[in-house]
Write a structure and sequence with these properties.
Strand order of the largest sheet: 1-2-3-5-4
Mean pLDDT: 93
Number of strands: 10
Number of helices: 7
Distance between the termini: 55 Å
Strand content: 15-25%
Low-confidence stretches: none
Helix content: 25-40%
CATH superfamily of the domain at 1-80: Nucleic acid-binding proteins
Bound molecules: zinc ion
């Protein structure tokens, strides 16, 4: 039996028996783990605050080889992030992030990267109101961790270079008409190679340039602000991309969409 002491962010909570909860945590030491928190449903035990979604707890648990659940030996509330659960839009965004992470296979050796990404993003959602931009940043970094960032250099079909050479730091696309993100090819179709299909989604030049420039900007230490239209297009495009990668739709996305893009 192995005993681990670490922090864990609650990704999922499920009622178990009369008073207990089964919690799924993301930890920096052991990836995703699930275990029973006794008294998780009882306010008297003081444990119910530790079962709220997106709180960070300090945990001690033991792992038995072959067992599905770990045994939680100690669980102390570290950060509550109550603001997220008090604001519907923040809450829906956090639910979407956690659903993405529940679908990911997270190797133990990479746990810390995933944990830090979630920890950073939860703090941002709790503190700031630009939820759509925070979510997009999370998605782009998650794609990178999963090793499936779409290739943005040249067309995935004809292999033509997609960009005009600019004198400044920012690149702009060769054409001013829509391109497509192709979820099967993991790349971009130039306007000549666009097709009608369920696995491609249109990206206007502005959104494509934003995607490219913000990635290279992160490397070179500068930051670009997305427009509302960039956010809206990339929201749809990346949802399709993730759904295709995971082979299923994200349930939390339809709620998020109904809530985010009104008007
Ligand atoms: Zn092409």
């Amino acid at each position: 039996m192995k005993v681990i002491e670490t922090d864990g962010i609650v990704l999922k909570t499920m009622d178990f028996k009369e008073n207990d909860s089964i919690l799924t945590f993301l930890t920096p030491e052991a990836g995703k783990i699930a275990g029973v928190l006794h008294g998780g449903k009882s306010t008297r035990s003081g444990n119910s605050a530790k079962t709220e979604l997106f709180v960070t707890n300090h945990l001690e648990f033991s792992i038995k080889t072959g067992a599905e659940l770990v045994r939680i030996r100690k669980c102390e509330l570290l950060v509550s992030h109550a603001q997220i659960r008090q604001n519907y839009s923040k809450f829906l965004h956090a639910c979407y992030l956690s659903e993405l992470l529940l679908f990911c296979e997270i190797p133990v050796v990479e746990s810390e990267d995933y944990f830090n990404l979630l920890k950073r993003t939860i703090s941002q959602l709790s503190e700031f109101d630009n939820c759509a931009e925070i979510k997009l940043n999370f998605e782009m970094q998650l794609l990178k961790l999963l090793g499936i960032s779409p290739s943005l250099i040249s067309c995935t079909v004809c292999e033509n270079f997609l960009w005009k050479r600019n004198s400044g730091e920012l690149m702009s696309t060769k054409y001013s008409i829509p391109y497509q993100l192709d979820a099967i090819q993991g790349g971009i179709r130039c306007p000549d190679c666009c097709i009608n299909s369920t696995y491609t989604v249109a990206l206007h030049p502005g959104s494509l340039s934003f995607l490219y420039n913000s990635q290279s900007g992160r490397k070179n230490g500068f930051k670009i602000k997305p427009t509302q239209n960039n956010l809206k297009e990339l929201d749809q495009a990346l949802n399709l991309y993730f759904s295709h990668f995971f082979g299923r739709n994200l349930k939390s996305y339809s709620l998020l969409k109904d809530n985010s893009w009104k008007n």
